[in-house]
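Hello Y.,

Per our agreement to keep a running log of every chain we model this quarter, I'm adding this entry. I've kept the format consistent with earlier entries: sequence first, then predicted structure.
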Amino acid sequence: METLLRWFFTLIQPLTLVWLLLGIWVARMVWMRLWRWAALPTLAWLLLTVITCTSLASWLLAGLENRYALPAPADVEGADVIVCLGGGIQPSLTEPMGLHLVRGADRLATALSMAASGMAPILVIGGGGYKQDGQMHSEADAILDFLKRFPDQSFESISLGTCANTRDEALKVAKLARDREWKKVVLVTSASHMPRSVATFAKAGVPVVPVPCHYMSSYNQIGEGSWLHLPYRGSFDLFDSWFHETIGTWIYRWRGWL
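Predicted structure for the entry above:
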């Protein structure tokens, strides 16, 4: 009974209903031999099926996530600084913490746990900005304000302010590295974002020790999956992450940032 209920609730989800209705429409037009009218709906149904009903998006994303393995403790030992790239929170005027955790919050959690355990004496926080009522709110500053609630920290926290993109973060870290003579920089960001980030920091003159986190692909999750399944809305997030990084890498390479 429980399995039937789960299937029923899956079938009445908007995405599944759209997929089913579009498939029925395509089947009807093909049955009536309306080939010209069936072309675009068929293409749309096939695209929706491939992205949401197969593990293609997970497979593509895993190709990015698995470029860098977690480093051995000896590789991180003696680090001068931990750099956490933005994308894990949004500043909030209503949340009790002053910040809202979003999809990439694993970045912040990983960096904070490493800093709190004494892996490096300094934590550098990056991130973008958000405008509200004509005033810009910095992601990194919001995290710094939150950390100030805990004065007995064993590490120094530095905000990069509002950064436009990963290259902006890399350039700001490069300047700090020169000023403070940092030799060993640990970089924390999403596993899928790590290949572009490592290359961007290297181009800016900052070789890093990569610590990937925030693995999204089902190939990097606990639990058995299947290649074919009913439409899964999370596949859009997986495909979006892969597409964003792929296009972003092309643009960065074209601009000479890699």
